[in-house]
Design goal:
This protein is mostly helical and 78 residues long. It is 59% helix and 5% strand. It has a two-stranded antiparallel ribbon with strand order 1-2.
Length: 78
């Protein structure tokens, strides 16, 4: 069964991820590396597309990003 993807049509998840990442002083490459160490399949190119809102994010990716950035779902879904 395929993993659920979260659409970014009205919710600006990607923009919120970018903002939280920048506030923590973490670059895209570093975040991708941290996610890959957790076993999350993601590339920098995918993260760029997610942050721009042109690629849907998988639930496991969202959960891992939330944990790595130390933020809440509320911050990402605002």
């Amino acid at each position: 069964m395929a993993e659920q993807k979260i659409k970014q049509d009205e919710i600006r998840i990607g923009e919120n991820i970018r903002q939280a990442r920048r506030e923590k002083g973490i670059g895209q490459t570093e975040l991708v590396r941290l996610l890959q160490l957790r076993g999350i399949p993601i590339t920098r190119e995918s993260l760029v597309k997610i942050e721009r809102g042109i690629q849907h994010i998988q639930a496991s990716q969202l959960r891992a990003i939330k944990e790595e950035l130390g933020c809440t779902y509320e911050q990402l879904f605002k």
